Amino acid sequence: MCPKERLVYERMVHGRRVDGIVVARTRCNDERIAYLVSEGFPLIAFGRIASELDFPYLDVDGEEGVCKAVKYLIGLGHRRIGFIAPSMYLMFAEHRLAGYKRALQDNGLEFDPALVVEGNLTQSGGYQMMEQLLDLEEPPTAVATGNDLMAFGTMEAAQGRGLVVGRDIAVIGFDDVPLAAYFHPTLTTIRQPIYDIGKMLSQTLIKIIKGEELAQRQIILQPELVIRESSGVG
């Protein structure tokens, strides 16, 4: 946590500008959460961290989600599967990369570091990283991405090379944002119930602020594979 960011949190805590905080996009070593816990300040996180620090959180099983996606691609016959990971300082990036590796291992496929690149969660970032994968001597026939925005950029890069997404190359995202069902081609993705998650986070934080006991302090939700056109026909 940089000095400027820490100052923001100190002002919120000591100035009592807010009664509680939802921390999103948790980092592997998240000083924001460590600080709030040390101050005894009401918080709930959307995501886990690498340490054993005890705090309330809600998360989606990103490892299982990506594992499902990659196993689905393997089931379609793909053996060279790329992965465009989120920024690796984020905890959910670690989980999603672990899911990619587990799917390969479970199916007897060797992990190739050249097939894993790190994006920045934006559409342009996905485009740039897909360009890098397509420039490989033996490019992937399928690509899983760490979020839907990067998947959109991935498809645009593939189309720019004259590839037909869903026929010449398969693409799978993560999130199931509304545009995923309307993009061309429609995007196969891992759905996390983001609106339900937002409701659960806010309701839980209100309980924490009121000092009410939580039935569960740490919840991990299971994601769902949503199959559409971008992955081809199973």
Verbal overview:
The protein folds into two domains: 3-60 and 193-222, Rossmann fold (3-Layer(aba) Sandwich); 62-192 and 226-231, Response regulator (Rossmann fold, 3-Layer(aba) Sandwich). It has seven helices and ten strands. It has helices at residues 3-14, 31-39, 62-75, 91-106, 123-134, 148-160, 194-210; strands at residues 21-23, 43-46, 57-60, 81-85, 116-118, 142-145, 170-175, 188-191, 218-221, 224-226. The strands form two sheets. The protein has a six-stranded mixed sheet, sandwiched between helices. A four-stranded parallel sheet has the order 1-2-3-9, sandwiched between helices. The N and C termini lie far apart (45 Å).
What would you call the shape?
elongated
Helix/strand-derived category reads alpha/beta
Label the CATH architecture of the largest domain.
Answer: 3-Layer(aba) Sandwich
Total number of beta strands: 10
Summary of the model, kept short:
Helices cover 40% and strands 17% of the residues.
Features:
alpha/beta; 6-stranded mixed sheet; Rossmann fold; about 230 residues; 4-stranded parallel sheet; 2 domains; 7 helices
List the helices and strands and how they pair.
Layout: H1 3-14, E1 21-23, H2 31-39, E2 43-46, E3 57-60, H3 62-75, E4 81-85, H4 91-106, E5 116-118, H5 123-134, E6 142-145, H6 148-160, E7 170-175, E8 188-191, H7 194-210, E9 218-221, E10 224-226
Parallel strand pairs: 1-2, 2-3, 3-9, 4-5, 4-6, 6-7, 7-8
Antiparallel strand pairs: 8-10
Helix pairs in contact: 3-4, 5-6
